[in-house]
Amino acid sequence: MFEIIKAAGWPIWPLLFASVIAVALIIERSITLRRSRIAPPGLLEKVVTDLRRQGVSPEMIQRVSAHSPLGQVLAAGLRNVKSSREVMKESIEEAGRAVVHDLERFLTTLGTIASIAPLMGLFGTIVGMIEIFGSQTPGGANPQQLAHGISVALYNTGFGLIIAIPAMIFWRHFRALVNSFVLDMEQQAVKLVEVVHGERRG
């Protein structure tokens, strides 16, 4: 591995740094963006059951809010359970925006790495090409410098693509996952509003 890095030249170091960040973000988001953690099944039904049995209390709101991101959205509605439908929906939407912002954390960074990794690889290719042209002398080409220039160009191009492709795949996957969670939370929040205002039984 060290020999490959040596052959790729100094332009490989920014790519290696980007790859470490990308791997760390992919692991962190894979752990964080799990359905059981974001929108656990059965939470809405439990909230509705508790609401009908004992009504809303500060302890209940605190417990629901600390449960999960979906719980934070539902807790915002519970805080305004005695308000009008419009006020309740507005409070849920405000909480939802904050939750979505948290779910999308680091995705911009991952998407940026996916976009710039090929450009960083291209930069390494240009550096390698400069070395190739620099190997040309009036007495002929310097074989060692020529070989090193070719190595720099090819290794950096390859590393840029190796980093960019998985980063792009996971970025799109996480974006789709967040959109799925948002849709699910919106639907459950609407159900809570309708149950509170007597438009459905649960």
Outline the structure in words.
With 202 residues, this protein is an all-alpha fold. It has 9 helices and 2 strands; from the N terminus they run ααααααααββα. It has helices spanning 2-8, 12-32, 35-38, 43-54, 58-67, 69-79, 85-103, 107-134, 143-196; strands at 136-137, 140-141. The protein has a two-stranded antiparallel ribbon with strand order 1-2.
What is the compact description of this entry?
With 202 residues, the protein is mostly helical. The protein has helices at residues 2-8, 12-32, 35-38, 43-54, 58-67, 69-79, 85-103, 107-134, 143-196, and strands at residues 136-137, 140-141.
Compile the SSE list and pairings.
Layout: H1 2-8, H2 12-32, H3 35-38, H4 43-54, H5 58-67, H6 69-79, H7 85-103, H8 107-134, E1 136-137, E2 140-141, H9 143-196
Antiparallel strand pairs: 1-2
Helix pairs in contact: 1-9, 2-8, 2-9, 5-6, 6-7, 6-9, 7-9, 8-9
